[in-house]
Amino acid sequence: MTRKAAGPVERFLQYLSVERNASDYTCRNYAFDLELFFRFLGHRRLGALTPLDVRRFVAHLSAGRSSRRTIARRLSCLRSFFRFLCREGRLDHNPAESVPTPRLERRLPSFLDEGQVTRLLGTPADEKWLGLRDRAILETLYSTGMRVSELAGLNREDLDEISGTAVVRGKGKKERLCPIGATALGAIRRYVAARPSGKRLRVPYALFVSQKGTRLTVRQVDRLLARYVRQANLPKAISPHSLRHSFATHLLDRGADLRSVQELLGHANLSTTQIYTHVTAQRLKKVYDQAHPRA
After folding, report:
1. How far is residue 106's CA from residue 21's CA, in Å, rounded to a whole number?
2. What confidence tens digit (pLDDT) does each residue in 106-129 have?
């Protein structure tokens, strides 16, 4: 990235963080996307950019086998960045505005059935503090349906054991109250009692910490889940988000209403939650086809 581009990018990221309340995770993604774009452009001036430059970048991403979803996110990042520069008076047009977003396939979320969840949650058998931590992480993800970034950001003070709830900071740093089950709370209690204390904890207020005593990262949670998925002989495609999908699907299967599930997941729009009704309907159709004598 050129020095001239670095200044506007830094101001844009600060705007996202301070005025738009974007999470650190979102800001890091946007910084990476913009770095890619400017690396592709070389030394072209911001004021000289055209829609053709953006189209060429999209073609470059496609040739590099980026998914449509990734391309759509990077295009959205560019639109937001150029819109910000237009408001600042640095640009008189948005070169990404007219570039079409790739059509996204509506993918049904991957999820585990209740038996598979039980198998996965029972996999961390180590009774040392790291094993207890991993068990608490898996139990918390399934008990609350929270995003892995939300779990990584939890502090000890966010838990209220008396009410059985956790304060979760979601997208846009919006806070919501998540019920957390007795099994997950018990797992957290055992982990906290066993984990290191004093100087060995570099971030003592963080709930889930690494072996070095630092706050656990999203990537570290991804890796530990992948290890337990292999040990439990579950499909490789299972991710931390799959436990969120499983949480929502199982609630709907057992009669929870869609609006309540929306609030528990922290979805801004009901349409985002409605995809789980398709999963449930699809599963019911499969059961019907297998069980009904005249299906």
Report:
1. 28
2. 666 688 999 999 999 999 988 899
Residue 140: closest CA among 180, 178, 170: 180
How far is residue 97's CA from residue 190's CA, in Å, rounded to a whole number? 52
Helices 129-144 and 114-121 sit at what angle, rounded to 10 degrees?
160
Q: What is the pLDDT of residues 93-109, one digit of tens each?
A: 999 999 999 887 666 66
Token pair, residue 46, equals 């911001």
DSSP state of 206: B
**Is the pTM here over 0.90, yes or no?**
no
Domains, the chain, ordered by start: 3-88 (1.10.150.130), 114-291 (1.10.443.10)
Which residues carry out catalysis? 147, 171, 241, 244, 267, 276
> Up-side HSE of residue 58: CA atoms within 13 Å toward CB?
22
